Amino acid sequence: xxxxxxxxxxxPAHRGSGARAALIGGAAAVIVLLLVGGALVLSNGxxxxxxxxxxxxxxxxxxAPATSAPTTTAANRFTGPTEVIAPVRVAAPQxxxxxxxxxxxxxxxxxxxxxxxxxxxxWRTEGDGTGRRITLNLGGETLVTSVGLINGMAxxxxxxxxxxxxxxxxxxxxxxxxxxxxxxxxxxxxxxxxMQRVEIExxxxxxxxxxxxxxxxxxxxxxxxxxxxxQGVVADT
Length: 237
What we know:
By secondary structure, this protein is mainly β. It contains two helices and twelve strands. It has helices at residues 20-37, 164-167; strands spanning 7-10, 60-61, 83-84, 89-92, 99-100, 106-107, 123-126, 133-151, 171-178, 183-187, 196-214, 222-234.
């Protein structure tokens, strides 16, 4: 069946704090190395592909070979402070319809809930989300040092004790894509309810996440994501 068009959702921006000056100063040095000095070697498809993530038995989807992570050296790796970068807009596949939890409270599943810092809320789509893509607009050039997500819906219903993490699908593999064409494959543990991260060092304005595999459903056939995290430094003023 056809995949619904992505739904663009504004996300409250949190692009920096009082430490902005220190962050920008450190990022500027890295930007010069990356864009002028060429010290950072970014994988562009000419390098040997990284290993294909092993998807546990019984899960759907499969990860294709992906471009390996950029190579860095001690001389050019960014070592300054970083912060969580909230996107200014997220484009995600159509979310599932609102529901009601065991306490009688209405629950919704907008894309912005992947960035609210609350793992008990989530974006979710109906059925197997394999192949679906979520795109984050960071609002400007950003030095990204890591990306990650909490797969599934990390919630236990407070009224009847239903474990929503096991009740629905959990992502077992995803691919991250950045402006320069770098693709990072990430294998996820479907029993870990905390943030699972992968390191990257690249300057980008957008980050794309594609779901490459999920577990089978529990009693409910939905694919949720509780949280997505982009860590780095805002490179523009």
